[in-house]
């Protein structure tokens, strides 16, 4: 099995089986979640941010597909891009989508978090980020 | 708060487009010379230069080429609203009694293709989460869902603005288009087709602002009734701040609305008083969203304004008579001041074939990364 590394540290935790969980923050005084985790609450500046692992279940809030590679992006096109709303936290998250055909997606459809290989770097290491996939997508 | 009258006494523009090896400095020099000549070469006590990609001392390079240094020269970066930010600083300084005359100019020479912005961390580019048109596309999709706007409506905006641009010799595109042609152009990010997106490009614009009435002028005096800049409140995942996450934002006013409300109050006008508007049409849906955010219609009613032709040249409030960014292209630092040049000509009655008859109150709007939103209101 080839080695893997996250696209950046601090976005998500990786379990032994390769599955991931997003790392967010929660401020008790503001009552709000945020992602990625910041030193202070981005809504109020409160310094009571508690490290939380965000839920993996979400619904689809908006989507499109990127058809031409943007600057600094070494992966394949087209790729899905959108916003999901985490069911438990009611937090809207910018994300890649595993589905790159906009016609196959609909508002409110159930989605779940997956690890997504972006590309293989010069050392042969797979670079991984987070993405959301339609529930039932077996990938 | 505004005690003094601030007038626009001279405007100048270098056409927006692509100009090969010509530098942003050279373009800035042309725009500045035109504006200063129109104002009668008044001595100015300060200069603000708007640019996002110009680099170190952009303003000094322009004024250095003209032997006009010695005064304070400050470069201003506020994304797409940079020119509005520069004008706000100039007008505010005049009102505060600091200066009598200020030169404001903007210039840009944008890289080609999808805009690469130092705003994004490298990992966000690597993960494919930094494609600017994809954020526009998500916003367009939500607007279509929430305000009943259709793809045909978006194409109609492009047709309107490109028809206006035919009469603007300073625009990049001066050919009309059709709904069919817009919808036949390639899909960049569903629902946005290539013709629905403005082209980043090159250009410059300059404005001379002065305290009080202009003595012996031959053209109608144009006043800066308001020049306001606002940033975003936290929360909107689709806002121009482009955060990685957000919350339910229905009750969070966007920066354009914050700037517009403050500008209306400062100028003492209401949206219904506007005769002409130049607004940020980075993509076609951005213009339609601005109708709601600027209060040209109620929230959720933007589609009606497109359908009934209210914003065409013969409608109740023509929007983007210059052709907008969809015709002119967008040189970030110059675009807001390009709008001010257009409105000044409209209010003077010298806009030629694209003149909005009898216009005496105009609004210019820019919004972009930061988030930054600028609203400028000019009156006669």
Can you offer a commentary on this structure?
The complex is a heterodimer of chains A (139) and B (380). Chain A starts with a strand and ends in a 5-residue tail after the last strand. Chain A has 139 residues and is an all-beta fold. Helices cover 0% and strands 47% of the residues of chain A. Chain A has a five-stranded mixed beta barrel with strand order 6-7-8-10-9. In chain A, strands 2, 3, 4 and 5 form a four-stranded antiparallel beta sheet that branches. Chain A has one domain (4-134). Chain B is an alpha/beta fold and 380 residues long. Chain B has one domain: Peroxisomal Thiolase, Chain A, domain 1. Chain B has twelve helices and twelve strands. In chain B, strands 3-2-4-7-1-8-12-11-10 form a nine-stranded mixed beta sheet, with helices on both faces. A two-stranded antiparallel sheet of chain B has the order 5-6. In chain B, helix 3 crosses helix 12 (332-348). The longest helix of chain B has 17 residues, at 332-348. The relative contact order of chain B is 0.20. The model of chain B has no long low-confidence stretch (mean pLDDT 95). The chains are: A mainly beta (139), B alpha/beta (380). Chains A and B meet through strand 4, strand 6, strand 7 and strand 8 of A and helix 4, helix 5, strand 5 and strand 9 of B. Strand 8 (92-97) of chain A pairs antiparallel with strand 9 of chain B.
